[in-house]
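ok new one. same drill as before - structure tokens go in, u give me an amino acid for every spot. 191 of them this time. try not to just spam alanines like last time pls lmao
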């Protein structure tokens, strides 16, 4: 084989391997829920923009938490809420986000409520309780029963974070790891 062709083939292989490596940093999945759930939610929304003008009130989902109790979303009106759509198990970006959220929780306790919601449809209350305990998470961790939340927010990668304002309006959607400093700046701009 000619040296030029060998070099081109080598460069092509390196580029393909690099692309695959970068792609595996982002965990993508199919929520496994039918697309005809009757609610289009935030499909087609541009991430990292203020969504106030859309005037979308968060649905009053009843979420099963890690303690087996149910939390009604509207019970959190009066607080800014950061929803962390994540997965239990081996998810390095989710673990990194949890670390950032611990700092955010410390800095904004009593002002901002944090909810981590597992998008893994096979998760159980026991599994999310174990995840919460083993990661020393001080806020509520729950289940996306039936994939309703993941579908509503069109979440195809984790972590995905959503900010709900104190009046229950969906204000922000961020895909990927988001530092506590960046979340804090966004919250300050939304107050």
């Amino acid at each position: 084989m000619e040296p030029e062709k060998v070099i081109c083939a080598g460069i092509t292989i390196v580029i393909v391997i690099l692309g695959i490596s970068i792609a595996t940093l982002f965990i993508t999945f199919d929520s496994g829920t039918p697309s005809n759930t009757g609610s289009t939610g935030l499909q087609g929304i541009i991430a990292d923009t203020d969504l106030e003008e859309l005037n979308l009130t968060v649905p009053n989902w009843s979420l099963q938490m890690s303690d087996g109790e149910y939390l009604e979303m509207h019970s959190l009106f009066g607080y800014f809420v950061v929803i962390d759509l994540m997965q239990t198990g081996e998810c390095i970006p989710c673990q990194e986000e949890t670390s950032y959220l611990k700092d955010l929780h410390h800095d904004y306790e009593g002002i901002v409520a944090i909810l981590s919601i597992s998008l893994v449809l096979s998760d159980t209350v026991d599994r999310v309780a174990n995840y919460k305990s083993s990661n020393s998470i001080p806020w509520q961790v729950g289940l996306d029963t039936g994939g309703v939340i993941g579908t509503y927010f069109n979440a195809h990668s984790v972590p995905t974070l959503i900010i709900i304002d104190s009046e229950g309006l969906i204000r922000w959607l961020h895909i990927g790891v988001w530092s506590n400093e960046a979340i804090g700046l966004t919250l300050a701009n939304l107050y």
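The chain has a mean pLDDT of 85. and btw The first helix runs from residue 3 to 24.
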